[in-house]
Structure formats: C-alpha cells, structure tokens
Amino acid sequence: MRTKKIVKIILYLVLVLAFVFASGYFLLSKKKKNKDKSVDSYFTVKRGDLPIGVFLSGTINAKKKHKLSLEANIKTTLTWIVPETSSVKAGDIVAKFETDDLDQKIEELELSLQNLLKEKEIALEEIRIQKSVNEAQIKIAKDNLSEAQEAFLKYRKLEGPKQQDTQTVKVEEAEKLLEEAKKNYEDALATFKETVFMSEDEKKKELDKLNSLEKKVQTEQINYNNAILDRKILERFTYPNTLSQLLNKVEQEKLNLEKTIVTANSQLLQKENQLAKIEAQIKKVQYDLEKHKSYRPMMELVSPVDGVVIYSDPDRRWGPQEIKVGMEIRPRDIIVTIPEMSALVADFDLPEQYRAKVKVGDKVIIQPDSIPGLKIEGILSSIAPTPINQILWDRNSPKIFPSKIEFNENHNKLVSGMSVKVEIITDILKDILFIPIEAVFDEGGKFFVYLKTDSSPEVREIKIGSSNEFYVEIKNGLKEGDVVCLFRPYQN
C-alpha cells in the first residue's frame, strides 16, 4: 500500500511540473511574438510612384539555341552521345548514329548504277543498229518507188506511145496490102473478062489465078481487120490497163515507203524510250546515291559553338524527349540542344485575360527564384499573334500567348533553364499614397486598416485604388506618415 502511495505522489508532481513548464513556454512565446510584431508588423504610409503590373512566372532561355537533330532522311539508332551538361567546344562530336544500313544502301545503289550504265551501253548499241537497219529498209523502199515511177513514166511517155505507133503502122501496112490485093484482083478480073481463051486449060489456069488473088484479098482483109482490132484493144484495154497497173504499183510503193518509215520510226522510238527509261533510272539512282552519300557525314552531330549539352529540346511543349543510347532516331528528332549563353531571353506564357493589359515594349522586372534580391530590367519584345491551349491536346484548357522578354543588359549569373518571376509594368501611378496589401482588411464589402496610436490600434475605413502584387493605392482615409498594422491586432 505504501508503494502505491509513493507512485501516486510522484505522478502528481510530474503533472504539476508539466503544467508549470507549458504555461511558462506559452507566456514566453506570446511575449516573443508580440515583441516580433512590434518590430516588423507596422508600416509608415508613404507618398511616391507606384508601378502597376502583371506578375507571372517564366524561364530563362538562350536567345539562340543550336538544336541538333538527324538531318539525314532515314531511320537509324543512336550509338553514342556525350553526357548531358558536358561542356563542349565548337567542332566537338556530341552524338553518333548507326551507319551499317546506310553503308549497305550505298553499296546497293553503286551496284545498281553500274548495271544501269551497262544497260545504257547496250541500249545505245541497239539504237545504232536499229538506225542502220532503218536506213537500209527505207533505201530499199525508196528505190522500189523510184523504179515504179520510172516504169510508169517510161510506159506512159515511151513504151505506150511506141506500141500505139507500131499498131498504127501495122494497120496502115495491112490497109496497104489489102488495097494492093484488091487492085490485083480487080485488074486480074477485068483482064479475065476481056480475054478470049483459046482453050479451056488456059481459061482454067487464069481462073485459078483469079481465085488465088481473091483469096489474097480475103486474107489481107482479115489481116487488116485484125490490125484494126489490135489497135482498138491496145487503145481501149492494153494501154490503159498497163498504165493503171504501173500507176498502182507507184502508189503501192509510196504506201510501202510510208509504212517502212513509220515502222522504222516506231522501232527506233521504242529503243529510244527504253534508253530514256534507263537514263531516268540512272539519274534517280545517282540522285539517291549522292543523297545517301551526303547522309554519311550527318551520322555524327558536331557542336557548332562552345557551350553546354542539353538533351532533347527543352522548348518542347509536352516535355523533353528521353534520349538514350540504342533508341531509334527518326529524321528531325532533336537529340541535343546547345544554347548560346552570350544572349539570353526570358520566355513566359501570357494568360488570355492579361492580353489586353500589356503590349510589346512594356518595361519588365525579372527576379530569378534562385538569386534572391537580384532584379533585372528588360522589355517585352514579342507576344504570339494568336493564342494556344496551355495543354495542347486539351481544347478546354486556358488560352495563353507565348511571349518573350529581352534584357537591357546581360548578367553572368543567369543561365538557361532558370525559373524567374516576371513583373510587366503596365502603368506607373505618380505621387500617390500606398501601403502593403497585408495592411488592408475587408468586412461587409468595406476596406479598413488598423491605425497605430499611442493607446490601442484604431480601426480606420479607407478607399483603395489600383494595386500591384505588394502595394495598394490609398485614395482616402490615410495621410502620409500614418502608421498602420500589418496584422489584425489582438482584441478582447
């Protein structure tokens, strides 16, 4: 029992000591807090110029960035890359790509070019042979036409008229012989009639002679009729038909010549078209070969300036691409970015609701997050003409205008990638009263401050005007030199 009493006493003492310690700590903290407020929680109303602006966040960027990508129009693999943030000199190799497929392609194109050049030689020889054959065939066709024309002209001007003349002579000779035979018969007949024959034998003899002359007349008549008929046949049939046949022969040889020329030209054209196709293939293969050969030096990325290596494209709106050895590289994929640190700018996104408040040329104050107290002046140098979605693939995301700020002078403490606060000065209120924003309180739609007095703080209603991120314009309720609390004083 005695042990239990001792334990209870000890616990009671511990609780009392804990209460005393907590009370002392609370009173000490309250006293310290009130002491701190007495030092830092008051502001004397000032009169002066108050800059009004828009406060945003931005990023330091190089004005000029060398973004190195695979310029060759092929897919390949990244085989080596310099470590990120490495310092490089102009002319240093910063990345290498796989070249086996490219070298194989170049060999294939060179072999194809050799084969096509041989095919071209064969095609040229075939054209030469075809031209020779065409010339021979056309010459034969021309010779045949000339022969036909000569035969036609010869018959029309020489042989035909000669045949007509010969036939006319035959008719005339036959007519002459017929006349002679008739005359001889008539003379013999007259003599026979006038003659008194002494004997029957003599009379018979003369009669036989007369019959012979009569037969001669009949024969010559037949010959004459045949000559007339032959001349008619010559004039009406033989001569026109022969002339027509020879003329047809001329026309046939003309057509044959034209056909020979067309066929020759067609065959030659086929050969020339084949040559043209081969030459076109040669040009294409030569172009592809030169193009792929030009890719060979592109399979290494070389730094154009001194600088620091940054992987991928830091300006990529959906974030930099992961770069690692062994990855597949497509044309125009940015592998390395090397910013020129000699000229820097600040990039920021201007929300759509602020677009009407700012303009190109406005003064800007830049404060790096990592260097407290440093303020750099610049100007708003550019605002995108049209807005874009803050999240590119989300049409419902806020609209922004990508914008740039140029510094009035360069600062060696700034580096690309730094985060900064951006204050765009849109107006300067001249010679006004202003106090910190935290000194202004709002109740029931009215603004008031706690004015410091010799006794307790006094509640003073005020009328405010324009403000920036830190200070607000006082239009009524305070005067220069008044002291206001930057906190709500303790009240009973």
Reconstruct the topology from this structure.
Layout (H helix, E strand, L loop, with lengths): L1 H39 L1 E3 L1 E17 L2 E5 L6 E6 L5 E2 L4 E5 L2 H95 L5 H96 L4 E3 L4 E2 L1 E2 L16 E2 L4 E6 L4 E8 L11 E6 L7 E8 L4 E2 L9 E9 L11 E18 L4 E3 L2 E6 L6 E10 L3 E6 L6 E3 L7
Antiparallel strand pairs: 1-22, 2-12, 2-17, 3-11, 4-6, 4-10, 5-8, 6-7, 9-11, 12-16, 13-14, 13-17, 14-16, 15-16, 17-21, 18-19, 19-20, 20-21
Structure summarized in a few sentences:
This protein is an alpha+beta fold and 492 residues long. 47% of the residues lie in helices and 27% in strands.
Question: Which features does this protein show?
Answer:
492 residues, alpha+beta, six-stranded antiparallel β-barrel, four-stranded antiparallel sheet, 47% helix
Number of strand elements: 22
Count the DSSP helices: 3
Q: What does the overall shape look like?
A: rod-shaped
Question: What's the end-to-end separation, in Å?
Answer: 50 Å
Low-confidence stretches: 1-7, 22-39
Strand content: 25-35%
What is the chain-wise order of helices and strands?
Answer: HEEEEEEHHEEEEEEEEEEEEEEEE
Mean pLDDT across residues = 87
Task: Determine Rg (CA atoms, Å).
Answer: 63 Å
Helix content: 40-55%
Which structural class do the helices and strands define? alpha+beta
Major sheet strand order: 2-12-16-14-13-17
Oligomer: single chain
Question: Biggest β-sheet, characterized?
Answer: 6 strands, antiparallel, barrel
Structure notes:
The chain is an alpha+beta fold and about 500 residues long. It has helices spanning about 1-40, 100-195, 200-295, and strands at about 40-45, 45-60, 65-70, 75-80, 85-90, 95, 300, 305-310, 310, 330, 335-340, 345-350, 365-370, 375-385, 390, 400-405, 420-435, 440-445, 445-450, 460-465, 470-475, 485. A six-stranded antiparallel beta barrel has the order 2-12-16-14-13-17. It has a four-stranded antiparallel sheet with strand order 7-6-4-10, with no helix packed on it. It is rod-shaped, with a radius of gyration of 63 Å. The protein starts with a helix and ends in a 7-residue tail after the last strand. About 15% of the residues are buried.
